[in-house]
Hints:
Layout: H1 2-6, H2 23-39, H3 45-56, H4 64-75, H5 103-112, H6 128-141
Amino acid sequence: HAVVQERRSFGPLGWNIPYEFNETDLRISMRQLQEYLNKYDEVPFDALCYLTGQCNYGGRVTDEHDRRCLMAVLGDFYCEEILMDGYMFSTSDLYYAPREGTYESYLEYIRALPLEQRPEIFGLHPNADITKDERETRLLLD
């Protein structure tokens, strides 16, 4: 949810059209995830990705390029590899799926993340920050 929401802050680099994703999209996706995890012995990643990307969030997406981008972004999270130790969400060592652990270990991982997220976690080039900052500066000065 955070990734699809935060991509909006990058303007047309994030999404061609500024969609209004909301908490309802997140809640229904979480309920479906919980239901499928409880119902099946093996995680049905393809079904979950389809439901989340084409139905829940994708129901708002009207641009075909944005839909393809959404499915690609979700594919980084809804995949078999996420269950393996050391699965990385980006090329840096910052963003990875933490090992199974205690509640405290998850909080510790989250607290260690940088306060300013890098564009790489959103699937964007590092220069996307420059473009975003220029856009915000123009909005401020205009």
